[in-house]
Amino acid sequence: MPPFVPPSGYHRIRVVASFAELVATPLADGVNAVCWARELPGDFDAIARHFAPDQDRRTIDDDELQELATEPALQLAIETLLADQRHLRELGHRPQLDCLRDYPRDADAVLPTDVYSFHQDSATVPTETFLCSYTGAASEGLRNDEAIPQVELPPVRARLLTEFGGDDDADFAAWLREHHYDLHHAMRPGAQPFSFGLGNLWRLAVRYPGCPVPACIHRAPDTAPLRPPRLLLIS
After folding, report:
1. For the CA atoms of 166, 171, 174, 179, what is the dihedral angle to 10 degrees?
2. Is residue 177 part of a domain?
3. Which residue from 116, 132, 109 is spatially nearest to 184, judged by alpha carbons?
4. Domain count, the chain
5. pTM exceeding the 0.70 threshold for the entire prediction
6. Which domain holds residue 82?
7. 15 CB-side CA count, 13 A
8. pLDDT tens for the 235 residues of the chain, in order
9. CATH number, domain with residue 121
């Protein structure tokens, strides 16, 4: 897979060549995502097949990876998986490596808020999201200028007001935030989502009070049951 190239004319993404640059590049001056673009050696697909869950998802710990390091191709991949997590832990993060087939879905919700919907991560204190797709389908991003909050779409807002059972006022706005409806976005006409690519380690801006940039909009790829399992690092 070729190195990641940001969407043409889009200024919110910086591409870097090392972990040091990944964490040193400010999420400021409009930049809300930093990508350490990599082409990783090793057989990550074999690791995903080994840990493929019977159900939707399972988390892989370091000991399980180290026990699997018996072949050179697997060793290369395992060294990368362990190193990525070690770097993040040294920053005070709690990375999680998942092998997954699917996430829960909100198919019957008045406004789905599962990870298959374009969304922004949020927090009450300054933080950031790191993620990397190693196998399977990669996460997807959406330019902020090609997105519109779902709650601003008249049909969606009308359904939410009915669900809320009140007026379009401050209480309604607080209710939207409480249920995370305000974090989810729809694509504007002509919008073109872009792939985060496999092997690339991303650092994304999160919505929190005082955040200097708009949070990065992204979603999980549609993982149909017949697709191979994904290896995903998230923190």
Report:
1. -20
2. no
3. 116
4. 1
5. yes
6. 13-107+114-144+190-234
7. 11
8. 456 888 888 999 999 999 999 999 999 999 999 999 999 999 999 999 999 877 778 899 999 999 887 778 799 999 999 999 999 999 999 999 999 887 777 777 889 888 999 999 999 999 999 999 999 889 999 999 999 999 999 999 999 999 998 888 889 999 999 999 999 999 999 999 999 999 999 999 999 999 999 999 999 987 655 467 889 999 9
9. 2.60.120
